[in-house]
Amino acid sequence: MHKEQPRCEEVIEAPLYTLHGMWCTSCALAVEGVLKRLVGVSEVSVHYPTATVWIKGVPDAIRLAVLAPHVAKIGYRLTALEAVGDAHARLEQESRYLSLRLIVGSVFGMWTMLASLLIYAGALPSVQIESVVAWISGAFALPVVLYAGLPFYRAGWRTLLAKRPGMDVLVSLGVIGALVVSAGLLWRGSVEVYFDTAVMLIVLLLVGRLVETFCRQRGLRAFDSLALPSVEVTVWQHRQPVTLPVEEIALGAQIDVAPGETIPLDGTLETSGWIDTATLSGESVPRFFAKGQQVYAGCRYLGGEAPLRLRVTAPVGQRRVDKLCEQMRRFQAQKGELQTLAERFAAWLSPAALVLGVLTLPAALLFGVGWEEATVRALSVLVVACPCAVGLAVPLASLAGSGQAMQQGVALRDPAALEILANVRAIAFDKTGTLTRGQHSVLHAVLRHPKDQADFQQMLCSAVRQSEHPLAYGLLRWATNPENYANDKVAQLEQLEEYPGKGQRMTFTNGEQWSLGSAALVGAQLEQQGQDLPECAQDPTYDFASQVVVADSQGWLATLYLADQPVSDAQATIQQLQTSGYGLAMISGDRQGPVTWLGQQVGLPKEACYAQRSPEAKAKLLTALPSPTLYVGDGVNDTLSLAAAGVGVAPMQASEAAREGAAAQLLTPGVGGVVRLLSIAKRTRRAMVQNLAFSALYNTLALGLVVVMAIPPLVAVLAMAASSLSVTLNAARLAWAETDEVNDSPALAPNAPH
Questions:
Q1: I need a labelling partner for 69 at 20 to 30 A (CA). Which of 10, 574, 621, 710 fits?
Q2: Pair 167, 159: CB distance under 8 Å
């Protein structure tokens, strides 16, 4: 029966919650089952490795105050999303909790195993001594069963309450069954007891849990680079500087950052200065930020004598780094196709194993098997069927892959992104701001008197220093070195006349007059003086570039050609993708000339470069490429294409709209992160498929084998533990990979200088 959903209420996505008290993936499925049955809840995903709960539904049904009591009824605790530091502390506590129980299990279990080994080997001189040793074996097993195994029984009971029995039910029944069978055999005078089975089952599962916890801790390290410390900040209140904790700084406040300090909050600059963005972006070269530009928390102010002043646009919790962390955790909390498949398999495997275990006993007796052997076979079925490996197969690989992507400079948001990325066939790039830097630079300059270039550059610096035109920044970078930005020895502007969209006419303090702008504007002004632009002022070789013409009272003075240069790793990235066999395209709304020129610079053939495309035309062209497709774009006009693509990727400097519409965001300058992301996705999906195939094959074959032939419970325990450990280590291998094969090229390395 389907639950009735409230009508006429908007379904929304709740903030992420943290679930405390989980012991394994069965706990996650149990809580998920409880929440799914609630009226008003449409989608739920409980992610065990990160202990997070993602939920969608009507607003009143998905509030924390409504959900928490339902979760508490089965023994768990639901809270607001914990900070990354708290998650580390929780996992540290879990590690100590597991270590203590593992120590108890190992110390006492060692004597149980030794006693069992002596009995199995026939090394004892008499039956009476064997009986005593068997009782000793049981005595040493009690601390292991009653203390070290307690978390399994608790989790098993909780999943039963949730009507979603999982592997902990099987483990608990296996341990209890081993004890009951052993006690019955001892009562009858037999010494072939199975206390060692119960001990090994608990100890090996504890070892697996501990390794798994270390792997989860490793996955959390991806967030450490984004976590900013709590610091004291100088804030201006009533024109007086006051020192307050960064958490208390409100939106719109004015704060100061001293030279050498890390910028604690996102904001708009009210003074200018040089800023090192390497902490957040990986860009090795500091950048000059002018007044009015946006800066982000995590960057470091290098700048001069005076403090950097900014107006806060995002307080703690709303900063760009905070949103990246939340987006990554939201991605991890949701499930892709393979993980959903694994959980469906595990969901029917546990009940099937319970039924099979119950039926094995009477079936064996009907076929003439003795009571003792029939009981042992039923016990082996319960032990070998534990779907530990199935439950861990996909989430651990996904966690490792997303963590590796973050460490390589890519933040993932979409739960299915890794699985889709592994199968991508075609990749399309936007031009401006994606394959290019989004800032024009001077390609070529022709001067009336080339020997006077130094004097011309100083005058040009004064002319364009205060301009906000996009080309002015390129002229300024060409005209002067950083240390000369405040050079007062050259002539300064005295009067400025603007011609919107065309150029400027200006007068300097030394009396010189300049016209600066398009060839049409400057040419028209020269005609008024009875002069013409000379032939050398126009170079057809640079028709694709933006042209700035300068004239003075004597006539034409200079022509400068500017173009938006490709990012430093564009050519290497395109070459690597072409070698890997991807279909590539560049789709831009820019003119054909600049698009073709950029294609030549980065190595794209002319037929792969599409110019003058509207946002709708971009998306239509993208859908015609072989799918699945990947689109990389940074602007508002790219949002439609980002949505139309199988996976959308936003570059580091992308607009807010593009970042929201993309499944992944590059955290380093350039587009080299695309190559790293694709390689990580392939390795992650490969690990997912390997884990899922092996765990499913193991459980299917093991169940069939243990039913038709007698397998000692201890062997079943070892087989079950080996399968779980192999899945965990395979995921850990992915997480602990130091470098990716694509990083052999320095141009593609995440921390390479740009």
A1: 10
A2: no
